[in-house]
Amino acid sequence: MPLFSSTWFTNNRDPGFASAVGATAAVTLALLVVYKQQKRITASQRSGLKEIPVPKEQYPFFGHLLSLGSVVSRRITEWHNELGSDIIQLNMGIQKWIMLNDPKMAHEIFVTKGAVASARPYMAFTYQKYAMGGKGVVYTDGGKTWRNTRKAVVTTLAPKMVEIFRDVIEQEVAYLVENLVANSDPVTGVDPVHYLQLASLNLILTTCLAKRAKSVNDDLFKRLIKYVEDSIAYGSPENDVSTYVPIMKFLDLFNGGKRKAEGERLLAFRIKTLKEDLIKEARNSSEKCFIKTLYEIKDEHNLDDNDILVTMSDLLIAGTDTTSVSMSWALILLVNRPHIQKKIQAELDAFKAEHKRVPTFGDRSNLPYIAAVQRECMRYRNITHFGIPHVADEDIECQGYILPKGSVIFCNMNGIHMNPNVYENPEEFNPDRFFNLESTMYGAANGRLENRDHYQFGWGRRVCPGIYLSEVELFSTLIQIFADYTLEPPLNEKGQPVYPDDNEAIDAGIVMTPTPYSVRVVKRSATA
Ligand code: HEM
After folding, report:
1. At 245, which helix (H) or strand (E)?
2. Is 464 annotated as a binding residue?
3. Atom of ligand 1 at shortest distance to CA of 387?
4. N or C: more exposed end of the chain, with fewer CB within 10 A?
């Protein structure tokens, strides 16, 4: 189910809830909260600050919840355009959601004012159950526990640590390419999704837990991918609607048994598979891995076993789908653009002619076009709708607007990356816009606003700590595919090419994936 779909309520609704006894009390409570919030805004308006534009399409109690359309980020981009504003406010039940379409504002809020804009919104399951009351990194508020854990994670995933694992990562990419080639039918090609998922999962497993799943049929692969997907789905807002609309508390009452059982199953899996099997094995193994580093620095960062368990689960969930979906977008964008593939291959051929070997990530500075293609693939199609939201700990003033304390702040990834004030001809796929940008994506995301390339990795104190790891994997994948192969579209029964649609996207929860597609992976000497 989509993360922010307008079908939440029709899909999930228990028909009995609307007539449930006690609705009046809940409605009164909801009205009171809404009234209090409106009073705050009115007070801020009186102080002469500008009013954040609000789209018209809203309903009593639900606000804009029911007007979001099927691809929410696109609906929100339309609202930005209709209202002619890079900042808009949505009323999501009792919550205020502030949507940003402009990197300057996002930078001012999340980086310059990051001290009060780096908390996460509270959600009952993710915070209380999944994060055991605030452990781990992803769902924790911005307090001391998060700071300790985040520091440990940033140390563990720092470029110099990832570099220690570069051979392992490049070997994993070699397996990926082998899998794609072996399974690519000469006519129908191969659907790359499971192989990309396997590569990304193995990236986390090998670097963090000194373990790997052997194939897409391996039971470990199937069970962990299910854990990742279920955790994302279970932790998404539609499973916590009473956070937005208190009268929906009835939904929790009616669905409580089933939902509770599903949640308990996930947490039990985590204890059995992650804690008792994988973490234990990794600690006893002679191989190097991040979990061992985390245990080595555990006391220095005040972490206990449960902090490490939730953190490991966070890395698995935050690192697997995001990286495989990024690679999936890159492949579909490139199969549709043979002229870009040719330029990539020309750069690789020139390198091979000079150095008599296939390059690696370490040769990145000699491969400026491939580095530019990597960035443009990331910019052109957003992997997440909104990254992960932040919360204002205090009223925050930005460019004459006031973002009220408690409001949930999102970057509209589609809006920012297609904003003509930020990128020239944003609808055009044009790697040249990033040609000769020297920094890595890791450096750009952690650097000054004017040196940023794209915003897929988020912002400020919460910026993704896994950038370098996924950057090495993505870059190595481009190198290893195009050194020897070309991506071509599948053929129909008349032998004509059928190019996959890279405009449509599936709203798969937190991530946005391409619609299912196939590519033919063709040996270069065999291509025309
Ligand atoms: C292309 C791949 C990836 C993308 C697009 C991505 C994107 C993001 C985004 C947008 C955020 C939220 C930032 C914010 O709140 O402003 C985030 C956070 C996070 N990511 Fe990634 N990520 C990727 C890969 C990874 C990998 C490989 C790992 C770990 C191995 C990882 C671990 C995390 C963690 C732990 C957080 C939470 C940080 C915090 O809340 O302090 N990510 N990521």
Report:
1. none
2. yes
3. 10
4. C
